[in-house]
Amino acid sequence: MVFVEQIADKARARLVKILPDAPALEAATLFHDGAEMILACREDGRLSGVVTKSDLMRSFVSSGKLDCTISIASIMQKEIVVCELQDTLKHVWQTLRQNSFRHLPVEDRSGNAIGILSACDILGGLLDASESEEEFLKEYVMGIGYR
User: Which residues, listed in sequence order, are joined to residue 51 by a DSSP beta bridge?
Assistant: First the structure.
């Protein structure tokens, strides 16, 4: 089995955080710089919501104007689905599929946001694991390493 912990470096590299009371303009800037998902975290690092580009655009469309001063807290998704380091990639993949997500926040055991996994990260980890298993079985059958 492959666990989130084994690909956590990829999730950590994608981590982008913002305070819930930050203005929407700050989130727009982060998206412009390449972020796919932004985690709204309190000062203590605990996750309080997530913001996607779609959330930001939806808020502008619903208000009928580009109000860049509205807070992240007013546009973020507060019902959050997360994964933890001890979760299996298979379980995380099923969670992504069931919810039609492309990204998933990663929390540590204390509930602190530590990264964002993408569907590509998860599929890559599952593929690497299956290729390693296939190579191991091939070597076992051929007697390599057991001489």
Answer: 38
Query: Which domains can be identified in the chain, with CATH numbers?
Result: 4-142 (3.10.580.10)
Q: Read off the tokens for 141.
A: 């059958």
State the CB neighbour count (10 A cutoff) for residue 23: 16
| Cα–Cα distance for residue pair 48/83, rounded to 1 Å | 15
Q: Where are the alpha helices (DSSP H) in 46-118?
A: 53-63, 72-75, 89-99
Which residues, 6 or more positions from 146, have their beta carbon under 8 angstroms from its beta carbon?
Answer: 140
Residue showing tokens 């690909």:
7
State phi, psi for 22 to the nearest 5 degrees. -70, 150
**Residue-wise pLDDT tens digits, 17-66:** 999 999 999 999 999 999 999 999 999 989 999 999 999 888 888 877 77
Closest to 10 in 3D by CA, of 94, 101, 120, 87 = 120
| Nearest to 81, CA basis, from 60, 67, 102 | 102
